[in-house]
Amino acid sequence: MRRLRVPLIVVLPLLLSACSAQWFIDTFYLNELVTFFTAGPVAAYQRNVMLFTFTVMLFVLVPVVGFTLWFAWHYRAANQKNTYTPNWHHSTVLEVFLWGGPVAIILILALMTVVSTYDLDPYKPIESENEPIRVQAIAMDWKWLFIYPDYDVAVVSELAMPVDTPLQIDLTSASVMNAFMIPRLGSQIMAMSGMRTRLHLMASERGEFFGKNYQYSGDGFADMRFQALSLSQQGFDDWLAKVRASGRALDLDAYRALVQPSKKVDPIYYSSAPDGLFGYVMHRFQVGDGKVPPDAVPSDLTADDVAQHGHAH
Amino acid sequence: MASSPSYDLNRVRAAARADTEVNFGFWAYLMSDVVLFSMLFLAYVNLSQRFAGGPTPADIFSLHGVFLETMALLASSLTFGLAMVSLHQGRKNHIIGWLLATAVLGIYFLWHEVSEFVHIIHEGASFTRSGFLSAYFGLVGTHGAHVFFGLIWIATMIAQLAVKGLTPPVASRLARLSLFWHFLDLVWICVFSTVYLPGILAGGSS
Amino acid sequence: MFGKLTLDALYHYDPIIVFANVIMIGAGVLVVALLTYYRKWGYLYREWFTTVDHKKIGVVYIVIALIFLLRGFIDAAMVRGQQATVGAGGEGYLSAAHFAELFTGHGTMMIFFMAMPFLVGLMNIAIPLQIGARDVSFPLLNAISVWLTAAAGALVMISLLVGSFSEAGWSGYTPFSGLEHSPGPGVDYWIWALQISGISTTLTGVNFVTTILKKRAPGMTLMRMPMFTWTVLCTSILIVVSFPALTVALALLALDRSVGTHFFTSIMGGDQMMYINMFWLWGHPEVYILVLPAFGIFSEVVTTYCNKRLFGYTSMVWATMAIAFLSFGVWVHHFYTMGQDPLRNSIFGIATMVIAIPTGVKIYDWIWTMFRGRIEYKLPMLWTLGFLITFVMGGMSGVLLAIPGADYKMHNSLFLVAHFHNVLIPGTMFGLLAGFYYWWPKVFGFRLDEKWGRHSFWGWLVGFYVAFVPLYMLGIMGMPRRMVTYDNPTWQFWLVIAAIGAIIVAYGIFSMFMQIYVSWRDREKNADLTGDPWGGRTLEWAIPSPPPEYNFAVVPEVRDRDAFMEMKVKNRAYERPAKYEDIHMPKSTPLPIVVAALSFFFGFAYVWHIWWLAGLCVLGTVAAVIARSFNDETEFVIPASQVQADEDAFHARLKQADVFTYIDGIQEFGDERTPAGQYVSPTSRATSGAPG
User: Fold this and answer.
1) What's the gap in Å between the CA of C492 and the closest CA on chain B?
2) Higher pLDDT, residue B153 or B18
3) Which residues of C296-322 are buried (b: 16+ CB within 10 A; e: fewer)?
4) Record: contact B131-C270, CB cut-off 8 A
């Protein structure tokens, strides 16, 4: 015992400091648990779904682990004093509980599932005082192109939005299947060629959040990320001005150059983008070989028309 | 297993029952084939409107040819049924005769199908043209391949009857071939009513 | 002449692949040289390559599984190594393409060439013995299945040397796996390896459905079947009904890639989502194909080592059937994020969660089997406890992911990767390893070493937590799966821990091989004289270890669920008839290896578009099968005198081990309660040699 005392004096302060919350957070990077540190209503809802489910599931976990360890210890063969009933194999009362327990838990979760699935439907607009901003996202090898049809600009690898303003993002792909997600804002959705999917997101605080393609898409996949900028209205206007100042137009030639495979692409600003480019890209997959020819985008082609041929939703 | 000199008809009949162990196994295999075809039907139904600007069913199907094909295959089921009746009567030569009739009808069916394929491809509507055509060739072609292997099997069984006579193992194989052949007939009826009938009806009304 | 195959296919830019090839070829040459030196080729051919004996076929399956366990694990370790060392923004020691081959190879090999063969191997070994049969329904088909699996595995192996393997992930999503985005031979290797092994598995399914429904010993009604037999029946039905979906998906993908059809392309009216639907129509039942037999193994293990009847047998059977049935109604949960309407997502989400109900019931039934038992902590019981506690967490994260709202967030992240490893490693791998230890003495006649087995257990268990808890964390931190590099420096901390976990698992795997070696070295000491080393309850323990070729000298009559235990209690175990009879058994035949070799060359030829060779292989297979069908002399006779001699020797061993005294000492079967202190553990008897 004496020998133990010296180390304890050394160790105790360390232990105490170790027990401080900050130490845990720093050591295990707990502040990086972006799923819990949400920045928008969708992600917050999803966090609550997960925490609720986790809590309910504790009613499974605790008894299973508890009974297992208890019985495993108590009924070990070495402990010959215990009751031993080699033929006992049925108890109606017990079985009612064994079936009833899981059924009850799943009933609760099923109810929550229906409600939350409808609430979190990515196609459902988010209620807000502000008018939603439309964004058209095209996944390429290996970067994201975001077109803002309301502002006639386009950006690669950067997605800006005013805080507390919903985004209505339409997605398609100019290549393989991709999945769009900004973890701190919530909800992932696939982008597929020839089809349109839709996602509604909103940031409720300002900041920079990372976004990524989550579906493996080839060599440049790991670096296929973008920054999502949640700005004040003024900041967003400044950002738009900056994009427009680039003076680079996204015409079909520029588009065809952009769509070539490239990795680790830094933000590119386009001061204008042709109407209907998004729908035209989809359309070329539905009727042609998926490549965009150098002539003009047909003016009579709207994304909604094209989407009718698409598959998703 | 010692071979019996002349065949014992009761053992032959017993071997041809549908519920022997080996025939039960063949039922299980047929279940897997049912799923295989359901997947192809699923693919066809899913892709049946995806013409990619290419030809539609009304452009390439002709009811006349398909009707003859269908009749030939239905008749071949009948002739195979008669072969099995002969089996239960123990008449080896009758079985061979009915099997030959079945084979002729099967060959007619297959010849018809292949010439239809060639005709369609010559019109520029090959399986590379659109999702619809891929699915069409995939489904009908898989059925055709099954018929082709059925014909090889029929030929093998004719040879076995000639060489070995109507032994219990041969009778048992004939029972399975019979299941297989009727199964193909059943699948064809589904093909006819999923692929040709709606395709041609849609063409007629437009 | 050689299609697309040129010498370029042998050129590898990556030194790691060159090194792996040197090892692979070196090992191959060494094995061939040793076999030649010890003149074992004749023995191998007669006893193994041409055998139709289900027990030997089971062993071949498990050998294949162990080889691919090593390869699959090396792939996983390299993935972990890359992610742990690459650091934020770094390049790492692996190229993106090689990294993709590794995660694709890992998933493909672990599912198709480790878990499936392991499982089918144990099925082969145990099922005919458990139901009192002399072989499976179709022994020749069984042999064809095993060698087809070997041929498919050989295709995976050869892809390392000639060409490359797929980079499209183990699920091969279109359009990435289409020709435009994956022009190399990798996806074709993947297709044909899966196709051949899938056909092999379908044949196995047909075989075991028939075997279990048609070959049970008299008296074994469905509700008297051992739980393992029940789960294998359900799995076999699932195989028969689900594998054709994979066959079609792969065949159509192969057509897209080789003749230019448009089933799954993104252009010209193809439908990329159709592939994903078809793949998961097979893929989700596949999860239960893998997990149900392991559940069956846990049931056998729990009853045997708790020395107690299974609690809630009827519930277990219904739960198993329910899981099998429901497994077909949940496939959409693999792609909630593809933009279906919330109604569809809700339905599939609830269907998925509902599976948790029968699964939960099964878990409670095992727990209540332990209640008032006499639990002996042999290795399989440890695996079972490790399973119970670990699996429930995998189940929790599974229910979480089943909720579309949560899945929108966690899909494609490392959370998902952690979840399915958390289900498959305890659920399948622990079960397989428990079964491995449990049935090993039955096959080889000696028990496996306990000490190294425990090292293996703790290596796997601790390694699992250290490797996968970090992946849960990383998933919550938003890290996607399949990243060759990343720019978030905080992720590296957890990735290093995960890599340490992989090293601990490596120790578990090493210990397992040590266990096999040590047990083989000490096989005399560990010999199982009685055929009943654990005080077993089911029929496989009623016969010698290793069993004679014909398994049962006399087909037993079953009067109880725990058929052999009932015999022991009623003192009719090891009863001998007045007179033995001749036994007909199927002859060995080289047809299976011929068909398998032709399939291998067909696959290889298709990969490289060597059409003449592919055609020849098809013709050869058809010709071989037709030729075989003319041969009705497929059986040989084991004379009654030899059966008598075998049985005499067995009974001499039984007397030597004093088994009959032990049987006399077993409590009356109908007794509910046994006075404390009177119980004699059969296992302690087997190890100490004499009953107390």
Assistant:
1) 44
2) B153
3) bbbbbbbbbbbbbbbbbbebbbebbeb
4) yes
